[in-house]
Amino acid sequence: MPARSSYSSLACLAVTFLAALSGCGGGVTTVSLSGQVTYAGEAVDLGTIRFEPLDGKGATAEFPIQAGRYVGEVTPGKKKVVIQGKRQTGVTQPGGPTGPSIPAYEDFVPEKYNSASKLEVDVTTSKPDADFLLEK
């Protein structure tokens, strides 16, 4: 009989665990957000865009920028926007003793759009696009 009791306890524990997993994140509304990111009229080919809640509540969301575009799921509300862009420098770095050389990259988007960003966006379900056309 003890074996059957252990089996029942294990089954009960598994059901409880699966129920808890299915409830994770429940009730959190997100909005599909996408847009274009340019700097001085040129697409930011490689980088990241981060949306931080201005009120400090809720999750921060970060997405890659590729070929001047980003797409992702963000919780609604007012967000601080932090943008980082990288570009190839034309220099290569050794890839290791036997590996090929790899291109070097540099950050080129000014601090006023990343570490000192004042960019903001109000994410709503009625406005699923947010473009960021950054100036020098």
Description:
16% of the residues lie in helices and 45% in strands. The chain has 136 residues and is α+β, with helices and mostly antiparallel strands. It has one domain (30-134): Immunoglobulin-like (Sandwich). Strands 3, 4, 6, 7 and 8 form a five-stranded antiparallel sheet that branches. Strands 1, 2, 5 and 9 form a four-stranded mixed sheet that branches.
What are the defining features of this structure?
136 residues; Immunoglobulin-like; four-stranded mixed beta sheet; 45% strand; disordered N terminus
The CA-CA distance between the termini, in Å, is: 76 Å
Give the number of domains. Answer: 1
Q: Mind telling me the CATH class? A: Mainly Beta
What class would the helix/strand composition place it in? alpha+beta
Largest sheet: 5 strands, antiparallel
Q: What's the number of helices?
A: 1
* Second rung of CATH, namely the architecture: Sandwich
Q: Give the number of DSSP strands.
A: 9
Form type: elongated
Q: Please, what is the average pLDDT?
A: 83
**Cα-based radius of gyration, to the nearest Å:** 22 Å
Portion of residues within helices: 10-25%
> Could you state the order of secondary-structure elements as H and E?
HEEEEEEEEE
Low-pLDDT residue spans: 1-25
Oligomeric state: single chain
CATH superfamily: Immunoglobulins
CATH fold assignment: Immunoglobulin-like
Q: Strand share of the residues?
A: 35-45%
